[in-house]
Amino acid sequence: MSEFASRKSHNSRLPPEVNRILYVRNLPFSITADELYAIFGKYGAIFQIRLGDKDKDTRGTAFVVYEDIYDAKAAVDHLSGFNVGGRYLIVLYYQPAKFEKRAQLEEKEKDLQELRKRVQQHKASVGQS
Length: 129
Description:
Blueprint: H1 3-10, E1 21-25, H2 33-40, E2 46-51, E3 62-66, H3 69-79, E4 83-84, E5 87-88, E6 90-93, H4 96-128
Antiparallel strand pairs: 1-3, 1-6, 2-3, 4-5
Protein backbone atom coordinates (compact mmCIF):
# COMPACT_ATOMS: atom_id res chain seq x y z
CA MET A 1 0.00 0.00 0.00
CA SER A 2 1.44 3.38 -0.97
CA GLU A 3 2.14 6.14 1.55
CA PHE A 4 -0.65 8.29 0.05
CA ALA A 5 -3.21 5.49 0.18
CA SER A 6 -2.40 4.73 3.82
CA ARG A 7 -2.69 8.42 4.74
CA LYS A 8 -5.94 8.74 2.84
CA SER A 9 -7.55 5.74 4.56
CA HIS A 10 -6.24 6.90 7.94
CA ASN A 11 -7.61 10.44 7.49
CA SER A 12 -10.61 9.75 5.29
CA ARG A 13 -12.72 12.54 6.80
CA LEU A 14 -10.98 15.90 6.92
CA PRO A 15 -12.63 18.96 8.48
CA PRO A 16 -14.16 21.33 5.90
CA GLU A 17 -11.65 24.13 6.56
CA VAL A 18 -8.69 21.93 5.59
CA ASN A 19 -7.20 22.83 2.22
CA ARG A 20 -3.85 22.92 0.40
CA ILE A 21 -3.26 26.64 1.03
CA LEU A 22 -1.80 27.70 4.37
CA TYR A 23 -1.61 31.23 5.74
CA VAL A 24 1.44 31.70 7.98
CA ARG A 25 1.75 34.63 10.39
CA ASN A 26 4.31 35.86 12.91
CA LEU A 27 7.28 35.07 10.70
CA PRO A 28 10.60 36.81 11.35
CA PHE A 29 10.79 39.78 8.97
CA SER A 30 14.18 38.62 7.69
CA ILE A 31 13.07 35.10 6.66
CA THR A 32 13.62 34.10 3.04
CA ALA A 33 11.58 31.89 0.73
CA ASP A 34 14.39 29.32 0.76
CA GLU A 35 14.22 29.11 4.56
CA LEU A 36 10.45 28.63 4.35
CA TYR A 37 10.92 25.85 1.78
CA ALA A 38 13.35 24.17 4.18
CA ILE A 39 10.87 24.36 7.10
CA PHE A 40 7.62 23.53 5.28
CA GLY A 41 9.14 21.17 2.68
CA LYS A 42 9.68 18.52 5.36
CA TYR A 43 5.95 17.79 5.29
CA GLY A 44 5.48 17.31 1.56
CA ALA A 45 5.82 18.73 -1.93
CA ILE A 46 5.26 22.47 -2.08
CA PHE A 47 3.57 23.99 -5.09
CA GLN A 48 4.27 27.64 -4.21
CA ILE A 49 5.37 29.99 -1.42
CA ARG A 50 4.47 33.68 -1.41
CA LEU A 51 6.15 35.87 1.17
CA GLY A 52 4.48 39.08 2.30
CA ASP A 53 5.87 42.37 1.06
CA LYS A 54 8.10 44.53 3.16
CA ASP A 55 5.24 46.99 3.78
CA LYS A 56 3.56 47.08 7.16
CA ASP A 57 0.40 45.15 6.22
CA THR A 58 1.85 41.87 4.94
CA ARG A 59 5.30 41.83 6.56
CA GLY A 60 5.89 38.64 8.53
CA THR A 61 3.27 36.64 6.63
CA ALA A 62 3.34 34.06 3.85
CA PHE A 63 1.12 31.74 1.87
CA VAL A 64 2.35 28.17 1.46
CA VAL A 65 0.57 26.03 -1.14
CA TYR A 66 1.08 22.27 -0.97
CA GLU A 67 0.57 19.78 -3.79
CA ASP A 68 -1.44 17.52 -1.46
CA ILE A 69 -4.05 18.37 1.15
CA TYR A 70 -2.73 15.74 3.59
CA ASP A 71 0.74 17.32 3.50
CA ALA A 72 -0.82 20.69 4.30
CA LYS A 73 -2.66 19.15 7.25
CA ALA A 74 0.57 17.59 8.53
CA ALA A 75 2.33 20.97 8.30
CA VAL A 76 -0.43 22.73 10.25
CA ASP A 77 -0.42 19.99 12.89
CA HIS A 78 3.36 20.11 13.36
CA LEU A 79 4.31 23.74 12.70
CA SER A 80 1.65 25.71 14.58
CA GLY A 81 3.57 27.17 17.52
CA PHE A 82 6.94 26.19 16.02
CA ASN A 83 9.71 28.61 17.05
CA VAL A 84 11.51 30.27 14.14
CA GLY A 85 13.99 33.03 14.86
CA GLY A 86 12.55 33.63 18.33
CA ARG A 87 8.97 33.90 17.04
CA TYR A 88 6.22 31.31 17.33
CA LEU A 89 4.55 30.58 14.00
CA ILE A 90 0.81 30.83 13.54
CA VAL A 91 -0.14 28.42 10.75
CA LEU A 92 -3.75 28.52 9.56
CA TYR A 93 -5.72 27.16 6.64
CA TYR A 94 -6.45 29.88 4.11
CA GLN A 95 -10.13 30.82 4.27
CA PRO A 96 -11.05 33.10 1.35
CA ALA A 97 -14.28 34.30 2.97
CA LYS A 98 -12.38 35.74 5.94
CA PHE A 99 -9.90 37.54 3.70
CA GLU A 100 -12.73 38.92 1.56
CA LYS A 101 -14.55 40.11 4.65
CA ARG A 102 -11.40 41.84 5.93
CA ALA A 103 -10.85 43.55 2.55
CA GLN A 104 -14.46 44.76 2.50
CA LEU A 105 -14.12 46.07 6.05
CA GLU A 106 -10.93 47.94 5.15
CA GLU A 107 -12.66 49.44 2.11
CA LYS A 108 -15.60 50.61 4.24
CA GLU A 109 -13.19 52.10 6.76
CA LYS A 110 -11.41 53.98 3.97
CA ASP A 111 -14.76 55.30 2.68
CA LEU A 112 -15.71 56.41 6.18
CA GLN A 113 -12.42 58.28 6.61
CA GLU A 114 -12.97 60.04 3.26
CA LEU A 115 -16.51 60.99 4.28
CA ARG A 116 -15.27 62.38 7.61
CA LYS A 117 -12.65 64.44 5.78
CA ARG A 118 -15.31 65.90 3.46
CA VAL A 119 -17.56 66.78 6.40
CA GLN A 120 -14.66 68.53 8.14
CA GLN A 121 -13.86 70.48 4.97
CA HIS A 122 -17.51 71.42 4.55
CA LYS A 123 -17.76 72.59 8.18
CA ALA A 124 -14.62 74.66 7.75
CA SER A 125 -15.92 76.31 4.56
CA VAL A 126 -19.35 77.03 6.12
CA GLY A 127 -17.67 78.46 9.23
CA GLN A 128 -15.63 80.93 7.12
CA SER A 129 -18.66 82.26 5.23
